[in-house]
């Protein structure tokens, strides 16, 4: 993104450099270059947790359990069951991303608002950003993380990027919980959009360091708009994208601030050259930092208070659902917020389920009336 003034190194004549030919410039880097290890570690962690989730999911066994509870023969609907065994994927109609069931994701720590607000499981707002819904989901996110995160870690180090990634992910979870209360949420998308948001604020707050400013800004804005536009497709939680982007945008003003170029140039100037004193940060940088810090604290505080007050913002805002899905002639948004929510009534071993998203109804005859996990799976099947 954009070339910095003088590139990564600056030519400088140093007096008394041992072994250096007379008059030959000595190069130095105005900013330290870091070795990126945290972002690759994040990728490995996400992949390992996905493998663990598929192990826990154990599609063949769960299908057999559901079939036994309902009193029917298992039909072995798991994808690639003979090749992958217990790591095989749920049927396409249940999970088109090639991954586990919703009940398994919930067990592993997916974001479910009822569990957070009523169950005291606030930790789900953090754990959900390390889980993914399928192979397609994790491949897209991890590829983006490598392309964006490694360069940022090289520029700013693992401490700053680690803080930025985790806090943006939590910010995405918070906004998702406020607007998408009828479904579970997983994925690192909020954290990834936080990295994009921080790149924009970093460009703005370190404006004097960059050459070709308008070109760099235009390219970055186009990338951000395209990524946010993808979020209007069905079954994509754009609330997490927007929450992560806003969090990362404000965090960028705070933790990615750079000293102004004139200050760096004077600091590394030869002793014989007495340049005028320069402040480390420009006034606008300090102002942006303070504004971002206030808005960030205020936003998280208000969001948490509203969430734990049991308020569903999607019911208070008649148009906000368009931020996550815009219905067209090619797709419907009706299933995006309540795809696994069912109304149920039970009399003995007879269970009647009605999917709230599609109004589909079905009656099941259970051999074990107390098998709640199987009932949840039946609801997911009915709403698929």
Automatic annotation (TrEMBL):
Its EC number is 3.4.21.105. The keyword Hydrolase applies. SUPFAM superfamilies: Rhomboid-like. Keywords: Hydrolase, Membrane, Protease, Serine protease, Transmembrane, Transmembrane helix. GO terms for biological process: proteolysis. It holds the Pfam family Rhomboid. Residues 120-256 form the Peptidase S54 rhomboid domain. It catalyses: Cleaves type-1 transmembrane domains using a catalytic dyad composed of serine and histidine that are contributed by different transmembrane domains. GO terms for cellular component: membrane. It is a multi-pass membrane protein. Residues 1-21 are annotated as: Disordered. It comes from the Eukaryota. Belongs to the peptidase S54 family. Serine protease involved in intramembrane proteolysis. This is RHOMBOID-like protein. It comes from Rhynchospora tenuis.
């Amino acid at each position: 993104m954009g070339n910095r003034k003088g590139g990564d190194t600056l030519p400088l004549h140093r007096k008394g450099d041992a072994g250096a030919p007379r008059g030959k410039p000595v190069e130095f880097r105005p900013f330290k270059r870091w070795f990126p290890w945290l972002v690759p570690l994040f990728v490995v962690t996400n992949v390992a947790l996905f493998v663990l989730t598929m192990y826990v999911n154990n599609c063949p066994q769960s299908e057999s359990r559901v079939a036994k509870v309902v009193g029917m023969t298992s039909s072995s609907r798991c994808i690639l069951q003979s090749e992958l065994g217990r790591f095989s994927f749920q049927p396409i109609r249940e999970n088109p991303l090639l991954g586990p069931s919703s009940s398994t994701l919930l067990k592993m720590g997916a974001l479910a608002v009822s569990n957070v607000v009523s169950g005291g499981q606030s930790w789900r707002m953090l754990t959900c950003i390390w889980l993914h819904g399928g192979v397609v989901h994790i491949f897209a996110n991890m590829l983006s993380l490598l392309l964006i995160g490694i360069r940022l870690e090289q520029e700013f180090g693992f401490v700053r990027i680690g803080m930025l990634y985790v806090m943006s992910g939590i910010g995405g979870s918070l906004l998702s919980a406020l607007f998408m209360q009828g479904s579970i949420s997983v994925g690192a998308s909020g954290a990834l959009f936080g990295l994009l948001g921080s790149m924009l604020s970093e460009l703005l707050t370190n404006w004097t360091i960059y050459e070709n400013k308008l070109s760099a800004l235009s390219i970055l804005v186009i990338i951000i708009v395209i990524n946010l536009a993808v979020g209007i497709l069905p079954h994509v939680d754009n609330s997490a994208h927007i929450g992560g982007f806003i969090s990362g945008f404000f965090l960028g003003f705070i933790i990615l601030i750079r000293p102004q170029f004139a200050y760096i140039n004077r600091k590394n100037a030869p002793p014989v050259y007495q340049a005028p004193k320069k402040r480390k940060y420009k006034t606008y940088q300090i102002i942006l930092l303070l504004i971002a810090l206030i808005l960030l604290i205020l936003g998280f505080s208000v969001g948490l208070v509203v969430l734990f007050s049991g308020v569903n913002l999607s019911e208070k805002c008649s148009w906000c659902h368009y931020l996550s899905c815009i219905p067209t002639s090619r797709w419907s948004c009706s299933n995006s917020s309540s795809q696994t929510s069912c109304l149920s009534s039970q009399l003995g071993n007879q269970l009647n389920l009605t999917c709230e998203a599609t109004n589909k109804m079905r009656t099941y005859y259970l051999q074990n009336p107390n098998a709640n996990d199987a009932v949840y799976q039946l609801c997911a099947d009915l709403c698929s």
